[in-house]
Design a protein that fits this description.
alpha+beta; Hypothetical protein af1432; Beta Polymerase, domain 2; Ubiquitin-like (UB roll); three-stranded antiparallel sheet; 22 helices; binds manganese (II) ion
Length: 499
Amino acid sequence: MEQKELTIDDILASFKVQPSSEGKRLVQRAFAFANTAHDGQKRASGIPYIQHCLATAQILAEMGMDARTVSAGLMHDVPEDTPETLTTISKEFGEDIAQMIDGITKLGKIKLRHSQEDYMLENWRRMFLAMASDIRTVIIKLADRLHNLRTLEHLPPDKQQRIAHETMEIYIPIANRLGIGEIYGQMGDLCFKYLDPKNYEYTRQVGEKRYKEAEKYIERAIKTITNGLKEEGIKVIDIHGRAKFLYSLFIKLKKHDMEISRVYDLAAIRIIVPEIVDCYEALGIIHKRYRPMVGRIKDYISLPKPNGYQSLHTTIFGPEGRVLEVQIRTQKMHDEAEFGIAAHWLYEENKKTWKDYFSRKKPEPQQSAEIAWVKQLQEWQNDVGNDSQEFMEGLKIDFLKNHIFAFTPKGDVIELPEEATPIDFAYAIHSEIGDKTTGAKVNAKMVALDYTIRNGDMIEILIDKNRQTPNQSWLTFAKTRSARSHIRQTLKKKSETRQ
Ligand code: MN
């Protein structure tokens, strides 16, 4: 993967949004500083150490991160691995950049504990702390880890296993939760290769053979469909084929008894159009020309996937009568699918577009939810001092489970982790509603209180105004940290007043 050595010009050319001349100077200064500090050091592969810093910075620039974050990426290993100190960085580059680097250094300093489990727990605790104080730190850490995985072949096998395992356990769920599909996908494939080499090789071979067959067809289909859309006056920003990541192909294969002919979305084309209305119009035009497959039209724009993903998906009997998956989305949806929370920085650069987006008539739930999520994490930051296992488990469920959106009868959106129940929903509205719950209706039908809520459910909580106490048994199925702690607290108060 790493054939040629990177230069600082490569990094400057990789910015998704060109930085100001001031920003460019900052990046160049950061490079010069890191380059001198790491002078003479080499990576396990034998290449100069600075190549790792440049590669990390390049991943960040491609994601749409700004000049300051990219500069911090360039210097991320300086305090840990060189004689230069954080104090010097703070003097030369300011407190903001110094603090990001301090955060990364702290993340790296985890002492090996007596058990693997303790080690993971401590690792998790630090990641949560870092996320709460500055999410950019975690994004730099993800870029750092991605490059370390790309060069894992140079490390001894036991280290390869440890790093791949730790990535699967911690970094991949975090990348997924932050919606950074590119990093999530690439990390998944790299870990797959080291943790399950046999299945990796099998999937790669099966996949490659099919892709080659599909590639030529995709090229022809893209031409035909582009012309069709042009004739109808649809502006297409981009149209391209996309290949599935190998690890997600493997998961699909397992679902279909390893039968590749049953994986319909192995090859797909992706159409990027300017506006949301264009998405629906393009879908209509495509369906007019090519018969869609029943049950495979998905509107993830009206109802986003649990992690906020938005697009229209359809599977059609395309040009030449062959089955083809088509995905349609706007540029913004595309950036967010690939770069997730990092896309916020990208759109921050262009305030107008960003604000326009917010002022659109309908609030887009995953947007506000993403911001609310970071805020909530910050509020909980103090609690993290308590590192009991149960507390950490609760955090992991609340934050790393994929999230779903449920609606109140008035149409308000409540965000919950997957597998949440009506009790979690009730406590998410208000703790008093939770305490007084007697039953629940989902989409107008009565359900048990341990019902598993699905994305898009409309939930009505039935309450008894005179009821004061939650039921002890709710603790066996309530999922969210807030519901569980409220139930416990109220029960405790009750038993104390009785005595
Ligand atoms: Mn590093």
